Amino acid sequence: MTSLVLILFAASAVVSLVLTGALVRIGQRAGVLDTAGFEGHDKELRSVPNIGGIAIWATLVLPLAGGLIAMQLAPDAITELIPSLAPWKAQIAESTPLATAFLVCLTTLHVVGLIDDRKPLGVLPKTLIQLGCALALVVWFDIRLLSVLDTWLGTGSIISISCTVIWIMVLTNAMNYLDNMDGVTAGITIVSGGLFMIAALMGSQWFVGAMLALLVGGNTGFFWWNKPKAKIFMGDGGSLVIGFALAVLVTRVTWFDPEATSGIGTAWYGVLMPIFVLALPLYDFFTVTSIRILQGKSPFKGDQQHFSHRLAQRGLGNIGTLVVLFAISGVTGIAGLLLGRSDATGAILLTLLVCLALLVISFFDYTGRKYV
Question: Is 99 within the bounds of a domain?
């Protein structure tokens, strides 16, 4: 199954590379270029198409939809063609309703993002749609983080539902916020999504691993066209899909089983793995939001004060900024990957490593600057 997941990654990357190249030409000819965005948004407009999210959505959603349909219509033929799927046929059939709902939510957010990229919808409609998608999966399809707290605290499912919805909303918008400089969001998705894919394969979660492989592959092909100087942007039609997909998928590779004696879910601190892997997007989200609030601005109005912009202003430039961001993501991400398989001492050391990494970038980030 590992080889099949890697094949999906390679195929997704190739298809995304070709499709994104076609979207560059289509976007230029059709004039669907970068827009000013929401009123008050401070950004440098460039004559670059912003429909690249179509490639990211297509390489994730369409193969999965096709595979689910094929498994429903001709499961025996598919398992004969791909024998490694045979032991998982029943599990795939059982997961089809959840996977279908997940794909519908991704498509809804993709369409909302495409519309918003052409004519801003405003904060409230976008937030309500994101909330509706999150609640649909969490409440009706039992996508949960920290469900063990429901039992420990005796509160029913309210704690896990609330935590998971907040997680999905925050990460969806964190990845959307991160899409502010050439190559940043696609590159961070490759690093963090790749680490989550490894975690899924280590836990024998082949279906989740396959979805992550398609997501990472799609961003790999897209990155070639989005790297500095970008020939295309993903827009909200891509960043919302990435954020929501990562938020939901990591709930499937993060768990704690108090009765387990071996494996990745034996230690409670393993549930912190997603925070470690995605420390950089979360750092950017919370710092730029805090800066805007302290300046008396709306936290929802975009500007040039993101962490990537702050690094570039230090003289690193676009490429230097990408190198630093990818390195930081790699350090915190690898620490997160190791967290769930470490003993208590190892977990403390890994936590200190991540905290020190964030402390260093915070010191570099804020020394000598005034934001209010």
Answer: yes
- Domain of residue 7: give its range: 2-366
Q: How would you write the pLDDT of the chain (372 residues) with one tens digit per residue? A: 788 888 999 999 999 999 999 999 999 999 888 876 655 555 667 889 999 999 999 999 999 999 888 878 777 777 777 776 766 667 777 778 888 999 999 999 999 999 999 888 888 999 999 999 999 999 888 787 766 666 666 767 788 888 899 999 999 999 998 888 899 999 999 999 999 999 888 877 888 899 999 999 999 999 999 998 899 999 999 999 999 999 999 887 765 555 554 445 556 666 778 888 898 989 888 888 888 888 878 777 777 778 888 888 877 888 888 998 999 999 999 998 888 777 788 888 998 998 898 888 888 777 756 555
Residue 43 DSSP class:
-
Task: Indicate whether 328 belongs to any domain.
Answer: yes
Q: Is residue 372 part of a domain?
A: no
**Residue 371 included in any domain:** no
Integer distance in angstroms from the first to the last C-alpha of the chain? 53
For the chain, the domain total comes to: 1
Nearest Cα to 240, choosing from 111, 152, 146? Answer: 111
| Farthest CA pair distance, the chain | 65
Short-list 230, 251, 234, CA closest to 242: 234
Q: How many CB atoms lie within 10 A of CB 179?
A: 25
Q: How far, in Å, CA of 115 to CA of 120, rounded?
A: 7
Q: Provide the b/e sequence for 320-341 (b: ≥16 CB within 10 Å).
A: ebbebbbebbebbbbbbbbbbb
Where do the DSSP E strands lie in the chain? none
Instruction: Choose among 351, 151, 138, 175: nearest CA to 251.
Output: 138
The answer to whether the beta carbons of residues 133 and 89 sit under 8 Å apart is no
Sign of CA dihedral 345, 351, 354, 360: negative
